[in-house]
Model the fold of this input.
Amino acid sequence: MPRHTPTRALARPTVPVTLIYKHPARHGHNARPRHQLMARPGDTVLELVLRNQLDIEHDCGGICGCTTCHIRAVAGAEHLSPPDADESQRIAQTCDHQSDSRLACQTTITGPGPITIIVPD
Ligand code: FES
Done:
């Protein structure tokens, strides 16, 4: 579940996150593959992306009920919450999962970064 806390809303965005789309044209943001974002500690990756008017599919609305928000944390994974059993089970259902696969709605930014995320097809 997305983690919403009143204090996090006041946190300053201090965590550098590079977001790389493998197929940017499919996400409707001017075909730019690379975006430099600043996250607030406690953001999920999905919250960060949506707050920056970018897109990651999230068919279930962020409740770990699908796999459409599949991402890969290719650098800085130590600055992210570890996957719980539900997320790990969902990730195993994706056809192209890798050892660094995560679900954007379940992945919380916990450290100072930097973090690099790839959005696969
Ligand atoms: S949006 Fe469905 S699992 Fe993340």
